[in-house]
Amino acid sequence: MDMMRKCGGFCTDHEQRKVWGMGVLYVLGFPILLLMIIIGGLKAAPPGEENPQCPAEPNMPWFLIIGGVGIAFLLIVRIALNKCFRCIKNNDKCCDEVMGCFCEFGCSMVYDIFCIILIVLWMITVTWWVFRHRVANELYDLIGQENLDSFRFSLGDNDTIHNIQFEDPKLDSYCDRLLYELSFALLSAGWLVLAGALIVFLIGKVCYSIICCRLCRNLEGREMDENEEEVRLTQHEHNKLAQSTPAKPDFI
């Protein structure tokens, strides 16, 4: 019965769907970030030294460490801010419900946009540094080597693109198989989680709350529910008082 009630609430309650959606993204995202930190820490070389684990892309472990720690920090701060916003909104002494709701929505939206921009920029940069060693030939065939190299040089990318291999550590094109394959897989999974987060953001905040004006309607709905609850409690108190008052005797 409880399961049916939860399923029904999930289908009808937007707030519950939003919480569950973000919860699923966090559950999927944090293991990926943890793996990035662990693999990067195991395969990283001290800064400024050559990395025998991956001469083709010596800074790859540090890309994973910095990205894993940075994105995890942003998500933890987002959770903490969400708790603070709700405490402030529910505190009637600070502001009324309408102002608190708009404050929570505006601050969280600005922070979400800031985080999405940072994560997308990091993902694009690191994805290029990792994927280019696997898809270099396909890119050269598609765009042309001269055009691609000119575009890279205009961005300050003067690194050599290798055809990555995992057998001979003496060659510059070598990279540890576990490091490279996991980096490739984690970045691919990261793009899927990021796409899910963008969908939740666009549907939950932009479409539902702004375009459909559901934020204001939800406030009106909650206010009507509170008024109905107050009327119901008042009537209940009146009924209890009427029942507890002894009836006056009839005099003949």
Annotation keywords:
77% helix; 252 residues; 7 helices; single chain
Description:
This protein is mostly helical and 252 residues long. The protein contains 7 helices and no strands. It has helices at 2-12, 14-43, 60-90, 97-143, 145-154, 177-211, 214-244. α1 (2-12) crosses α2 and α3 (60-90) packs antiparallel against α4. The longest helix is centred in the middle third of the chain and has 47 residues, at 97-143. It starts with a helix and ends in an 8-residue tail after the last helix.
Q: What's the SSE blueprint?
A:
Elements: H1 2-12, H2 14-43, H3 60-90, H4 97-143, H5 145-154, H6 177-211, H7 214-244
Strand content: under 5%
The main sheet comes to: none
- Helical stretch count? 7
Order of helices and strands: HHHHHHH
Low-confidence stretches at least 5 residues in length (pLDDT < 50)?
1-14, 223-227
Q: Give the overall silhouette.
A: elongated
The mean pLDDT is: 75
SS class? mainly alpha
Rg value: 28 Å
Q: Please estimate the helix content.
A: over 70%
How many E strands? 0
- In whole angstroms, the N-to-C terminal distance is 58 Å
Characterize this entry briefly.
The protein is mainly alpha-helical and 252 residues long. It is 77% helix and 0% strand.
